[in-house]
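Handoff note, outgoing to incoming analyst
You'll be picking up this chain. Sequence as last confirmed:
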Amino acid sequence: MSQLRIALIGPPLIEVDGRPLDVDTRKATALLAYLAFTGRPARRDTLAGLLWPETNPDRARATLRRTLSTLKSALDARFIEIGRDTVTLARPGIWFDVEELGRLVATTDGHGHAANETCSRCLSPLQQAAALDRGSFLAGFGLRDSAAFDDWQQLAGDEVHRELASVLDRLAGALAASGNPTQAIACARRRLTLDPLHEPAHRQLIGLLAEVGDRQAAMEQFRDCVRVLDRELGVRPLDETTALYHAIVEGSLTAPSPPVVVRAPSQPADAPYDLVGRDTELRELVETYDTLGSDGRVVALVGEAGIGKTRLAEEMLAHVAARGRTALVVRCYEEERGLAYGVVLELVRGAAAVAPPFEADLWWVAEVARLAPELGPPSGQPLDSEAAQVRFYEAVAELLQHSVGPGPAALYVDDAHWADESSLALLAYLAHRLKGRPLLLAASWRPEEVAQDHPVRRLVADAQRTGRASVIELGRLSGSDVAQLVASTGRGDSLGARLYLESGGLPFFVVEYLDALARGDDEPDWALPVGVRDLLERRLAGLGELSLQVLAAAAVLGRAFDADTVRAASGRTDEEVVLALEELVGCGLLVESADGAIEFRHEQARELVSGQMTLARRRLLHRRAAADLESRSRREDRAALVAYHLAAAGDDEAAAQRYRVAGDHARRLFANAEALGHYRSSLALGPTDAAGLHEAIGDLETLAGEYGGAFASYETAAALAAADALPEIERRIGLLHLRRGEWELAEASLAAASDGLEPVGRSLATADRALAAHRLGDEERALVLATSALALAGDVDDAGAIAQAHNILGMLAGSRGDPAEAVKHLELGATIARAAGDRGAEAAALNNLAFAVRASGDPDRAIELTAAALELCVMQGDRHREAALRNNLADLLRATGRQDEAMEELKHAVALFAEIGEEGRLEPEIWKLTGW
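Most recent structure output, in case you need it:
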């Protein structure tokens, strides 16, 4: 009988009818491994994205077809079913080691005992299962050009690793129970190699060594446990491990000690408190929601930290829920403010979790799956234009609409001052399009964290101008408010007066003191500084060693975290972490949300825990958090968070590199503000490529119109760069001079750069010199340079350079009164640039083409071309050229009688022009930009 054997636990070993699979590409092996492990049909688009993520989608699909053909031939057209849209393995005749591992473990489930226990009948299948282990999953195998496959391989390997670890744990116990302690010890040692930080495995091995009478080896094993935990985690062994060691030293141990179960102490629930001093604000919130009608509104809750914004919002959301409507909550965290679309990702997942079933082939599912692939295959189209971004924004809006249904709903963004700019841009899009959408969009922020020009302020201000927004500012509680709150707990007036005096009316402090009294603590020590440090320290003092270790790991992760990450950072087992988290939630230090996320109840508690750790321990925990995030998540979209932990761990070099990766990723998404922040963070850590970072910063400052900063960045890059990199930096300085209308300086910089540039760069510089000559009125020289630029570009066959040369030739033809020749060059330049994906060159050609078309007597087409160029510049974040295009568009609209539209564009243009250049420096040439 024909058979396909696939063994992936260890180096990949694939055999067809007893002979090795003969394929000449690693991608074929990777494809077969993925199909075998998932055990279900895979869409072609999914496979193409997994194996060729950086390749053009059409090319990736073509390469997939060739790989499938190769694999089908190697398998003699058996075992694999290749359909029009999906690919799957035909299970009959296939033996797969991971599948066999699961089957063998499953046979032990029907023996009448708990899943983690063993009996005599378990011994044989567990031994067979352990024999399948030849090393780590796909050991020695990887794809250098596919981070997506590497991430999948890591996740799949973790799953297999956990299964094998469980097998070895149970097998060691079964061997010991069956009178084979020597074999049990070998098995326990093997288990420990899978995870040297697994303390229960150390404990099991110590007990087994003691059982066979090897007291010295048991003591050495304990010391090894101490060394490993101290070196890697900076913690001591748990009490039960230490107790086992002392029993061995004292000679009182006769058998392995059973594991000690640590239970959370019984704690009374925190007493509920009335909402006092907020009647007016709550009434305004509720009335705003109840009167929504068919159009939505925006509400901002503003106040200092601890003022009660979240509590007020929760009362409003409870009102929404009581009416049977949907309320979505998204929380923002300081550590994640640099993650592009981080808040939107949480919003998408939260909305999907409450949404009614939906078809995977709906157009908006593929769009939102860009952020949440678990919803279905993501769109393969790049997010590189304003139209694509609008489509993505609208897809998120469609998901929200589907989730909340037709009735009035609420969306609350907590701590919006920490939201990333990309997410705020999407929220602003929603806020501008609430007509016909009965949605209350509420957000809270701290005024001390939000500058006047912060995006969240602009979002609300824009909505206020149209009468669709209101701002609710929360102040501190009055003395009578605090007295009322205290009276509601059944306590006397004297406590209320003293509590108001000590707390200053800040609700956070008031509630903290009342919490302590409700738990039966002694009367608070009023002499202590405000900040309730003593109350938090009392809670910490009552915790066991395990909970303190888990809490320390949680503190380095930030205000919010998940159980898997804190487990990895702490080095504790799943069971230990669950027990510790139960105790920490029970005593009020942590809270668990409905979606399973865990967070510190108060930021002050996290800061206190973090401050009590030594620097060495904090660094160890940050290092483990970084390693876990690196292994579990996609490499680029979480790079900023990894970099944060690496920097906190003291690994500046690695942190600088990850911040650079995060910056590059954000830049590709046109999240320029985040990219700039990441580049500057990388620079602050002393990276090896400081010149490259300064150059990248200069590029982004140029797009933002911060020309003074851009010049300084380029000059610094030039001072640090190697000699062969100087010409390109000089060319960029020349481009800056062009933007500012400094034609002679531009010519000087571009001429100095030309000789040292590669052919493509020389062609671009020559074209830009032609533009400078044109602006200086030397049309003859401009034509010579533009013609030379086209010849240079043609010699190297570079599409971008060819497009730029045609653009300049078109401008020159238009200036000498030959619109037909101008249109020919500019249409060709725009077409070539579009095909090459050069959005900047395409925008330039479209803008100049609009001038030529208008001269030919077609103002309507000129408006369309200018609008298309404007869309490209907005997408790139090029604010100066956006201003120029809006000004050009205003002129065109005015000429066709569309006065109101023209005035709107002109207002936008003037506002943008006023922000371009250096502060305090009058640069009139900036306002004169029309074509480039």
